[in-house]
């Protein structure tokens, strides 16, 4: 993942458990580093497993009182998920000041994003439904406008 902004730029080429990792990244639920850190596993291989990983530092995309969009970002990541109905992965951007402890709660509704009901968010959700693979775009609330 890479982000470019006046104040932010970062990338991860693998993960290593270190003070720097703990300062910048938070793992919640069942998520963990795999074999010391080449990748992050978000869930266990059991039903109803949930995990989350959060980059803790703010990335400024808006500036000024009128909140003009002033930034851009790019990201790339690879993932694999089981071919099981209900499997979901979401890339989420949340507003500054959101209590990150909310990410640690299991059993939230709306694809595990229930804590976002009262917050403005942007998310891209990848999932498996009865009709096959799907991609959802969530803007402002957790109901998604889906493309299948």
TrEMBL record:
Keyword Iron-sulfur attributed: no
Superkingdom classification of source: Eukaryota
Assigned keywords, A-Z: Lectin
InterPro entries xrefs: ConA-like_dom_sf (IPR013320), Legume_lectin_dom (IPR001220), Leguminous_Lectin (IPR050258)
All copies of domain Legume lectin, residue ranges: 8-147
One Pfam family this sequence matches: Lectin_legB
This protein's record includes keyword Membrane: no
GO molecular function: carbohydrate binding
Database matches in PANTHER family: CONCANAVALIN A-LIKE LECTIN FAMILY PROTEIN (PTHR32401)
Family from the record: Belongs to the leguminous lectin family.
Annotated protein name in UniProt: Legume lectin domain-containing protein
Organism for this UniProt entry: Arabidopsis arenosa
Lineage of the species this protein comes from: Eukaryota, Viridiplantae, Streptophyta, Embryophyta, Tracheophyta
């Amino acid at each position: 993942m890479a982000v470019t902004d006046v104040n932010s730029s970062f990338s991860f080429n693998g993960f290593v458990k270190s003070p720097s990792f703990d300062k910048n990244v938070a793992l919640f639920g069942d998520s963990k580093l795999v074999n010391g850190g080449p990748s992050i596993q978000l869930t266990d291989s059991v039903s109803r497993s949930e995990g989350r990983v959060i980059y803790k530092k703010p990335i400024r995309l808006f500036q000024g009182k009128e909140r003009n969009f002033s930034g851009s970002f790019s990201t790339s990541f690879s993932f694999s998920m089981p071919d099981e109905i209900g499997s979901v992965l979401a890339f989420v951007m949340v507003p500054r000041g959101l209590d990150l402890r909310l990410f640690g709660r299991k059993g939230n509704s709306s694809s595990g994003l229930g804590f976002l009901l009262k917050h403005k968010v942007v998310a891209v959700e990848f999932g498996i439904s009865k009709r096959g693979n799907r991609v959802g775009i969530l803007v402002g609330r957790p109901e998604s406008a889906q493309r299948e």
